Q: What sequence folds into this?
């Protein structure tokens, strides 16, 4: 006696929205259906590109070492000084690693009467993410108008690139550890915040350092940063109120 076994095959489900779209086109699906599937495909591609981007950034960051501060800038006859890494040093450290993971970057700059905005654009395989920072022209020293803009652009390029990649910088003796726990001096970013709050005015900086018993601004311990900022903001608010009162009288 012979038994016949009937086999039924389950339909294979499409693996991607593109396959679903192709099948819909072959079966003459309605235009509305095709539009929905096309939108689904676009979202799927975007999500895949985003996932690949995140994985590449994570892999690259695991290989990028802390960047050494290779430049020193001083103001006011050496009363104020700080060390930093220039853009060339950052690029020397990261370019080959980013390239190996298919990541590229570029900058976009917008200059207005009031501020300069620099945007760092990271991209991989058609997917991109942007990180922007605004800032005023750097009028410190004896810079002319174009030099002030150029200096600010370079500064913002360094910071947007570092922020986009989540990079850190370190001195040769690795002061980053002491800064992090508050025992070391303020960071470069903290230095610039206080510098801007003091109107980039050397006389105000000198008076501030005298009150704080500092030889120069960047000697301030990081543990005193928040209190110092609050104090300067209070003084600035008082000065503004006095100026407004004088203007109205």
A:
């Amino acid at each position: 006696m012979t038994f016949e076994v009937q086999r039924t095959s389950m339909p294979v489900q499409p693996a991607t929205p593109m396959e679903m779209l192709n099948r819909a086109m072959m079966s003459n699906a309605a235009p509305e259906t095709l539009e929905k599937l096309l939108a689904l495909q676009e979202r799927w591609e975007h999500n895949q590109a985003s996932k690949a981007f995140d994985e590449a950034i994570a892999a690259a960051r695991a290989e990028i070492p802390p960047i050494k501060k290779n430049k020193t800038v001083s103001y006011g006859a050496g009363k104020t000084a700080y060390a930093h890494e220039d853009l060339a040093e950052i690029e020397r450290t990261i370019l080959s690693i980013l390239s190996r993971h298919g990541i590229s970057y570029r900058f976009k700059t917008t200059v207005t009467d009031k501020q300069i905005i620099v945007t760092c654009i990271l991209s991989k395989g058609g997917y991109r993410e942007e990180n922007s920072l605004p800032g005023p022209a750097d009028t410190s020293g004896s810079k002319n108008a174009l030099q002030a803009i150029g200096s600010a652009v370079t500064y913002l390029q360094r910071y947007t690139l570092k922020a986009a990649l989540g990079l850190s910088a370190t001195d040769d003796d690795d002061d980053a550890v002491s800064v992090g726990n508050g025992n070391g001096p303020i960071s470069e970013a903290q230095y610039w915040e206080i510098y801007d709050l003091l109107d980039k005015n050397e006389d105000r900086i000198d008076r501030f350092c005298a009150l704080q018993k500092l030889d120069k601004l960047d000697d301030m311990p990081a543990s005193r940063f928040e209190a110092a900022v609050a104090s300067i903001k209070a003084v600035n608010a008082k000065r503004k109120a006095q100026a407004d009162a004088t203007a109205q009288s």
In short: The first strand starts at residue 67 and ends at 68. Confidence is low (pLDDT under 50) at residues 171-182. The two ends are 116 Å apart (CA to CA).
